Amino acid sequence: MAKLQQILTFGLLLVSIRFLEAQEAEEDDLIDLSEMGDAIFGTPDNETTGALVDAYDAQSEQNPEELGTYHEGDILIPLNYRDARTDDTRNGLLALSTRWPGGVVPYDIRGTFASQELGVIQHAFNEYHLKTCVRFKPRTTERDYISIVNGKSGCWSSIGRLGGRQEVNLQSPNCLRTYGTPIHELMHALGFLHEQNRHERDGYVQVLSDNVKPTMMANFEKASPKTHWGFGVEYDYASVMHYSPTSFTRNGQPTLRALRSSSDAHLMGQRRGFSAGDLRKINAMYKCKV
C-alpha cells in the first residue's frame, strides 16, 4: 500500500512538473504588446495610405511601408482582435500574440498579384527557408495562418500569431518592388518590431524631431526592454527592420542620424534582404539550429 502511494505521489509530481514546464514554454512564446496600447488597432486605410503608396516614387529615399498612417507606419492589428481579446494576462504579458509553433507559418495568397509579384513573394519565402529554420507552407486545414493580400491600403502586418486568419497586405506594385519589403512585413508576422524603436536606440541614432511630421512623432517612441527583444544582438543599422534616414520627414530632410562611426550606418533603411543581425535574432527567437 505504501509503495502504491509512493508511485501515485511520484506520478502526480511528474504531471505537475510537466504542466509547469508547458506553462512556462507557453508564456515564453507570448509576445508582449501591452505597452503599445490601442494605437496598434485599426482598420486598413484605403484612402490616405493607399494613395500615398500608389504614388510612391521608386527612386525615393524612403520605403513604401514608411508611408502608412498605421502605428509606426506599417503595424496594424484589426479591431476585431481588440474587441475579442480577454483580460487574461500572465506575468504582465498580454495574451494576444504568440510565436508560430515550430517556426511553421501556414499561408495562402489572395488577390490579383502579377506573376512577377508572386515571384518576389516566393523569393522572400526562399530567403527564410535558406537562412533560417522558419518555414512558410501553403495552408491546408490549419486554423491559424497568414493571408497575403494586395488591398489598396499600403504595406502592413500584425505582430506575431494572432489566431485564425490574419492578413499581410502588400499593395501592388509598390510594396513588391524589392523582396526586402515582404521580408520586413513577414518579420513583423513572426513577432519582430522595428529596429529604430529599440529601447537603447538613443546611443545609436538621434531623432531629428524638427524634421518629423508633428503627427508622426509617436512613431519614434522607444519600446521598453520587455517589449523589444534584441536577443543579444547589438543595435543594427543594417537591419531590414530599420527605417530609412528620412522616414516620416516633413521637409525632405533626415529624421534619423547615426551617432556611431559604423561601416553599416549608411545601410539604414536598406531593403536588399536580411542583415547578419536579423538572422541571428530570427534563429534565436525560433531556436533554429543553423
Automatic annotation (TrEMBL):
GO terms for molecular function: metalloendopeptidase activity; zinc ion binding. SMART domains: ZnMc (SM00235). Disulfide bonds join 133-288. It comes from the Eukaryota. It is an enzyme of class 3 (hydrolase). Binds 1 zinc ion per subunit. Residues 1-22 form the signal peptide. Keywords: Disulfide bond, Glycoprotein, Hydrolase, Metal-binding, Metalloprotease, Protease, Signal, Zinc, Zymogen. Its EC number is 3.4.24.-. Residues 91-289 form the Peptidase M12A domain. One of its GO terms (biological process) is proteolysis. Its cofactor is Zn(2+). Pfam families: Astacin. SUPFAM superfamilies: Metalloproteases ('zincins'), catalytic domain. Zn(2+) binds at residues 184, 188, 194. InterPro entries: Astacin-like_dom, MetalloPept_cat_dom_sf, Peptidase_M12A, Peptidase_Metallo. The active site is at 185. PANTHER family: DISCOIDIN, CUB, EGF, LAMININ , AND ZINC METALLOPROTEASE DOMAIN CONTAINING, METALLOENDOPEPTIDASE. This is Metalloendopeptidase.
